[in-house]
Design a protein that fits this description.
two-stranded antiparallel sheet, alpha/beta, 28% helix, 7 helices, 11 strands, Rossmann fold
């Protein structure tokens, strides 16, 4: 069984500047880390590999600048077997649709895969749309918000999805895609032993010219049908209000503040 995990490097701090022209994050010089949801996706994939048998593999794929090799090697230290990076200036500034399209092209280059696992969302975009849109580009079934993997079969996987108003158990045939919640499993820590033993392992770099569709108009900011008109960080240091008195007095004062600011109607 061949499993692919999509991972992303995200800013490791909330103090990020915004490019006023493109509306995208300025990532240069900003501390970066593995997207937290992707740690759970890797853990889920490694457990699925163990359940599927000794011939199973886990590959990770990231899209970003060359420095995101750091998160690929972190995945190696967790137990992933191979990894690749989609990196090209043409991919810069992509919206959700173009990000998922670019990933689908990368999957076509590396695949085929039986299962694709994505984190539910990223901490820098929070759209939770890339995984499902990737499945649509690939023409495969998908289940979002998976909280548990119930069974790993030879031709299908059974999962439980945590929907807003209910939990749903589903059996999905391969090839398919799932996006996972944080509660699916506790991610293992990267192993120093694996980090050292995989230090020389090759990370494949995939550029625009390597893809089946190499038209630069279909990627990045140029290909994105949606663009951010305006984005700005929330104001900080707005101050605080201390409420005094017993619990009843503080509750009444808090209710008055919320009503004054139109949070209560």
């Amino acid at each position: 069984m061949k499993t692919l995990v999509c991972i992303k490097q995200v800013p490791g701090t909330a103090q990020v500047e915004i490019d006023p022209q493109t509306g995208t994050l300025k990532r240069a010089g900003v501390p970066a880390k593995m997207n937290p949801f992707d740690l759970y996706a890797i853990e889920a994939a490694l457990r699925i590999r163990a359940a599927a048998g000794p011939d199973s593999t886990v590959t990770v794929l990231s899209m970003g600048p060359p420095q995101c090799e750091k998160v690929v090697r972190e995945a190696f230290a967790m137990g992933a077997d191979s990894g690749a990076i989609l990196t090209d200036r043409a991919f810069g500034g992509a919206d959700v649709l173009m990000t998922s399209f670019t990933l689908s092209q990368g999957v076509g280059k590396l695949g085929p895969f039986d299962l694709i696992v994505c984190g539910k969302q990223t901490t820098d975009g929070d759209t939770a749309q890339v995984g499902p849109e990737l499945a649509e580009w690939l023409g495969i079934p998908h289940v979002a918000c998976v909280k548990a993997v119930d069974a790993v079969g030879a031709d299908s996987i059974s999962v439980t999805a945590d929907l807003p108003d209910r939990e749903v158990s589903q059996r999905v045939p391969y090839p398919c895609l799932i996006t996972v919640e944080k509660g699916i499993a506790e991610p293992r820590l990267p192993s120093y032993k694996l980090f050292k033993s995989t230090a020389a392992r090759k990370v494949e770099y995939i550029g625009l010219a390597d893809l089946a569709d190499s038209d630069p108009k279909h990627y990045g900011l140029n290909g994105s049908p949606t663009q951010v008109k305006r984005i700005f960080p929330p104001p900080s240091g707005a101050g605080r209000t201390m409420l005094e008195g017993d619990a009843a007095a503080q509750a009444a004062a808090l209710a008055d503040i919320l009503e004054e600011r139109n949070f209560l109607r």
